[in-house]
Design a protein that fits this description.
Layout (H helix, E strand, L loop, with lengths): L6 E7 L7 H13 L7 E3 L8 H13 L4 E6 L5 H9 L5 E6 L7 H14 L5 E5 L4 H20 L4 E4 L13 H8 L5 E2 L1 H8 L4 H12 L4 E2 L13 H19 L3 E4 L17 H9 L4 E2 L4 H13 L6 E8 L5 E5 L16 E4 L21 E4 L7 E8 L6 E10 L8 H5 L2 E5 L4 H7 L4 E6 L3 H11 L2 E5 L1
């Protein structure tokens, strides 16, 4: 499902006194091919463009109509200036396409020399060539347009940190000057107290409704574990209130993405609440509101990019847990924030008491208060699924996307490992040895979506002018 379609403009360039049968046939084919296109809205002028001034005007018109990317098709020999002037002041990413299957007065050669000039000018663009009905090139155009749309969607969005910097995790913070310049994002910060105050405005009736709907998606609730740890009777109810409070914060402050610091502000009793925010975070991610744990801003942005790029897919936020003892596998898990709709429901979805004394890790000894309250979700991903995992990291010259493609497998967790047994997670098998993945990682939190989105993400990195590191 595509949430919003990008707009793709396609301009066909030719010379007035040259053979134009091939380029006219290509234009007619594109009109039919894109008439019912689900991936993008395609803008095509009424006729071929033959003059430089008309080419400049056509590009400006497409920009004014909201085109996210523009394709210039060189269909005959043309003067270089026709194409170069058209894109010299362009404000959106563009593709130069050389029609190459038939010689129409030197069309292919014209596109090659225009490519050279634009490269020398320092322009960033994608160059394609091929036949008029080359479906691979059409697929590339649509992927490129999708990436260009995501770049535009990121502009002026707000990723809000709730709480402060998380437990000396340097990699969860960014240089806001760099990231604002590249992505156009804003980085507001709010105290956890504001969430607690908004919770006071939520009625019990509203919260019980959300609690009921949430429990309908759960196969089993473990109210008491074998080791005696218990799940409080109000754990789901109070997290429903927190979820609704986050929704209020989103509307009050026009927030698009959250990076929430749960420990210790939410999870520890000395701060007045004492429940981990796992279920509220799960509910937010299930609702399509990307929410990362541990105030991890790059993770939140990575989740949001994947959510946009995939047309609204749910995203799984997880830690790198361990390298498998054999093969090219690794296990990932996190304490309960993943959306339930991603689960392999044939294996069930369970709620467990929060495991261990995690909240105390962030507190001085005099405030140690015992186990925090709340629930975590346990489920597995379906095995054999192709996935993409992403993390954006670095600052300045090192700013880059790091991503990998892999296949889901069973995770490697021993029966006595409480965290791994009670948390949602998955195993991944990489095509090559995991050493390459571990050598290139840019932090321990990764975001996962189903499918292969490596090409779209590559185009986005190129459009943004940042690094791109890819493992498979």
């Amino acid at each position: 499902m595509i949430m919003n379609k990008p707009k793709l403009g396609i301009i066909f360039l030719a010379k007035i006194n040259h053979q134009k049968e091939e380029i006219r046939e290509m234009r007619e084919y594109y009109l039919q091919r894109f008439a019912q296109c689900e991936e993008a809205d395609v803008l095509i002028p009424e006729d071929l463009i033959l003059e430089e001034a008309d080419a400049v005007k056509a590009v400006k018109d497409m920009e004014a109509r909201g085109a996210n990317a523009i394709v210039l098709v060189v269909g005959t020999w043309i003067y270089s200036s026709v194409a170069i002037s058209a894109v010299n002041d362009i404000h959106v990413p563009f593709i130069l396409y050389g029609l190459s299957d038939k010689i129409a007065n030197g069309n292919f050669g014209a596109s090659i020399q225009i490519k050279y000039v634009l490269t020398e000018m320092g322009k960033k663009f994608l160059y394609l060539y091929g036949e008029a009905r080359d479906e691979n090139n059409i697929d590339t155009m649509l992927r490129f347009a999708r990436a260009a749309w995501v770049k535009e969607e990121l502009r002026n969005k707000k990723i809000a940190t709730i709480g402060g910097k998380c437990m000396m995790m340097y990699q969860t913070q960014v240089n806001e000057f760099d990231w604002k310049a590249v992505f156009g994002l804003d980085f507001p910060q709010y105290d956890s107290l504001q969430i607690f105050k908004e919770m006071e405005k939520i009625s019990d009736e509203e919260a019980h409704k959300v609690e009921k709907e949430f429990l309908e998606k759960v196969d089993k609730v473990i109210w008491e574990a074998d080791n005696g740890e218990k799940l409080e009777s109000d754990a789901i109810f109070t997290q429903a209130k927190m979820y609704l409070a986050f929704l209020r914060m989103k509307e009050l402050y026009h927030i698009d993405v959250f990076a929430n610091k749960c420990m210790p502000e939410m999870s520890a009793l000395p701060y007045g609440y004492g429940y981990a925010a796992c279920l509220a975070t799960c509910m937010l991610n299930e609702a399509g509101i990307m929410t990362a744990c541990e105030a991890d801003v790059p993770a939140g942005i990575s989740m949001y990019i994947l959510h946009l790029m995939t047309g609204g897919q749910k995203v799984f936020f997880a830690d790198i847990g361990r390298k498998h003892k054999s093969g090219n596998g690794a296990t990932f898990f996190n304490c309960g924030t993943a959306p339930i709709s991603m689960a392999d429901h044939s294996k069930g979805v369970e709620l467990w008491p929060i495991a261990g004394n995690i909240a105390d890790d962030a507190l001085p000894n005099e405030y140690l208060c015992g186990k925090m309250k709340g629930a975590s979700i346990k489920f597995e991903l379906e095995t054999g699924k192709k996935v993409t995992i992403l993390r954006v990291g670095g600052n300045g010259d090192t700013l880059r996307m790091y991503l990998a493609n892999a296949t889901t497998i069973h995770r490697d967790v021993a029966p006595d490992e409480i965290f791994g047994q009670r948390w949602p997670g998955f195993g991944l098998e990489f095509e090559h040895d995991t050493k390459s993945f571990f050598d290139h990682t840019v932090g321990h939190h990764y975001s996962l979506v189903f499918g292969d989105w490596s090409r779209e993400l590559k185009y986005l990195a190129e459009i943004l002018g940042i690094g791109y590191v890819y493992d498979c």
